[in-house]
């Protein structure tokens, strides 16, 4: 696994070359309150790029261009949160999107365990280590363990997408997943605007 750490933005010579897997690390789970600290991006060849943000400095035009590029598919696990964070801090509407958590909930109806750790264990036979999940991502210097953890969160998303996509197609639910993915930028905006807990489709 090749990990490259960048400060503030992607390098000028970055080329996606196809879909990218994306994840974020923040100071907490409320996009308006808890700042974005790190963005992880993995290309299909297994290269991982980590973009570390200094305290609330988010001028990252090259990264924003990749996230908004309609020709580059962005693969997430629990995209709803990450897309809201990226919209709030980078001011970018991320699209198109593929979310492994939504896909899992639509097709792995035999279980209620849809976390990334469970998915990679069952579908890929890979055991993720989660010890650094709740560590201080706002620290000036991230540890090697934090960097390895952050990279592992995006490294397997390409393969998970392939497995889940095949299962969705097999069960006739790929069209439902695609419609959900298309709605995610709007869902993220609703979360930021205050409709995070309310079901606006309910009576």
Label this structure with key terms.
203 residues; Nucleotidyltransferase, domain 5; six-stranded mixed sheet; 6 strands
Describe the protein.
The longest helix is centred in the C-terminal third of the chain and has 20 residues, at 174-193. The chain contains 7 helices and 6 strands. The protein is of the alpha/beta class and 203 residues long. The protein is 41% helix and 16% strand. The mean pLDDT is 94. It has a single domain, classed as Nucleotidyltransferase, domain 5 (2-Layer Sandwich), CATH 3.30.420. Strands 1-4-3-2-5-6 form a 6-stranded mixed β-sheet, sandwiched between helices.
Element order: H for helix, E for strand: EEEEHEHEHHHHH
CATH superfamily: Ribonuclease H-like superfamily/Ribonuclease H
Strand order of the largest sheet: 1-4-3-2-5-6
User: What does the main sheet amount to?
Assistant: 6 strands, mixed
CATH class descriptor: Alpha Beta
The radius of gyration over CA amounts to 16 Å
| Record field, number of beta strands | 6
At CATH level 3, the topology is Nucleotidyltransferase, domain 5
What is the terminal-to-terminal distance? 49 Å
Give the secondary structure arrangement, pairings included.
Blueprint: E1 2-7, E2 20-26, E3 36-43, E4 47-52, H1 61-68, E5 74-76, H2 79-90, E6 97-99, H3 100-107, H4 116-124, H5 144-155, H6 157-170, H7 174-193
Parallel strand pairs: 1-4, 2-5, 5-6
Antiparallel strand pairs: 2-3, 3-4
